Amino acid sequence: MSAPLLEVSGVSKRFGGLQALSNVSLSVSAGEIVGLIGPNGAGKTTLFSALVGLHRPEMGRITLDGRDLVGLKPHRIAAAGMVKTFQNVALFLESTVLDNVLTGGLLRHPVEDARALARRCLDRVGISGISGKLARDLSFPERARVEVARALCTEPRVLLLDEAMAALNHAEMDEFMDLLRQLRSEGLTLVVVEHHMRAIMALCERLVVLNFGQVIASGTPAEISRNPAVVEAYLGRSAA
Ligand SMILES: Nc1ncnc2c1ncn2[C@@H]1O[C@H](COP(=O)(O)OP(=O)(O)OP(=O)(O)O)[C@@H](O)[C@H]1O
Ligand SMILES: [Mg+2]
Questions:
Q1: How do residues 72-83 score in pLDDT, each as one tens digit?
Q2: Which of 39, 48, 94, 200 could cross-link 237 (Cys pair, CB 3.0–4.6 Å)?
Q3: Tens digit of pLDDT for each residue in 41-54?
Q4: Pocket test for ligand 1, best of 40, 45, 54 (most atoms within 8 A of CB)
Q5: Whole-model pTM?
């Protein structure tokens, strides 16, 4: 077997008295779509933020293709090939779709090249027809695709999606998942945080479950859905 593309080992992150991540380890191989699930407050967004350099873990190692990432600034990690989308979409609402997407391309290219790259990214996610629309006028499915296009414009190897499908209905989710599968077939590696179990089970071949900052299970969707610790984590929280 080849070495994992992304390797997280023993990562811990504390916010004051709260241990948000505790000794988290996981690995993701090139070309996988891995789901990261867990109840609200489990630490999913915190882990993504640590991966892309927005939070520095107190302990642990994060490597991308063997390269150490802990301590690097977010733009360096993006340049190394890993970016995340934001849980609450952070587009520039008064700018056009094209301008929003090309900001991703400025990481590696001068503005004219970034613009050409942005057009290709819009095409890849199937929304080249709305490049001139203002971000504030977008529908939820369009916004989700613009977010992905902007991330693609940084030319990542690993894309971390934080609840990108949260505002979508079932049919829109199915279309969005088709897009993610297509991107994977083009060589992208994906880690997906999502609360919609139907979607995550259909999309991912492997799931990692966080609860109170710890990995409590990992395995195929079928294995995870019958794992007693996972069932307990979800039922325990919803009954609380
Ligand atoms: N910047 C911060 N400062 C202090 N505490 C934080 C910060 N960010 C997150 N937390 C806390 O860390 C814990 C993990 O939060 P996180 O946002 O990672 O959870 P999550 O799994 O993404 O939850 P959700 O499913 O609701 O998005 C929570 O208790 C949260 O309140
Ligand atoms: Mg979150």
A1: 999 999 999 999
A2: 39
A3: 999 999 999 999 99
A4: 45
A5: 0.94
| Residues 6 or more apart in contact with residue 186 via CB below 8 angstroms | 124
57 neighbors 11 (Cβ within 8 angstroms): yes
Residues near ion ligand 2 (Cβ under 5 Å): 44-45, 87
CATH superfamily membership of 6-81+156-239: P-loop containing nucleotide triphosphate hydrolases (3.40.50.300)
Amino acid at 29: S
Question: How far out from the chain centre does Cα 110 lie?
Answer: 26
Going from N- to C-terminal start, the domains of the chain cover: 6-81+156-239, 92-155
* Sequence-ordered strand ranges (E) for the chain: 6-15, 18-28, 33-37, 59-64, 67-68, 82-84, 158-162, 189-193, 206-211, 214-219
Ligand 1 binding residues, C-beta < 6 A: 15, 18, 20, 38, 40-46, 87
